[in-house]
Amino acid sequence: MKKILLFSILFCIIAVPLCAETQEISEIKADIAAIKTDLAVLKTEFKAFKESVNERFDRIEKDFGRIENNFDRIENNFDRQNNIIIACIGIPLAILAIGATIWGILAHKRSRKDQTLEKQIETLIQEIETLKQKQMVQP
Question: Is 28 helix (H, G, I), strand (E, B) or coil?
């Protein structure tokens, strides 16, 4: 009986840590299962977060596209305004330049006519004086 009691105690001493180890192993397995479920949840949350980030980036790209279109429109408007300003300033200046050139040409022609008339008048005056002198000499 002593032997049976001793073997029982020895078996209990050996079995108790083994039971504890199996409980620890089952706790570890439970922890691993919990971690796996947490990882699965994290993966799904990460996928959802990634999709939302991608959607936001898509929206931002669309917004930048709209902004770029607006800048193109503004640039076209500035080009039109510049053309209008150039036309409003350039056309009158061109008209003034042409008018001044024509005026200069006409003034030059008038001065030539005036010079030729002055020469004719001078020659006529000289002829009149010579005729007067001839008449005075011949009376």
Answer: helix
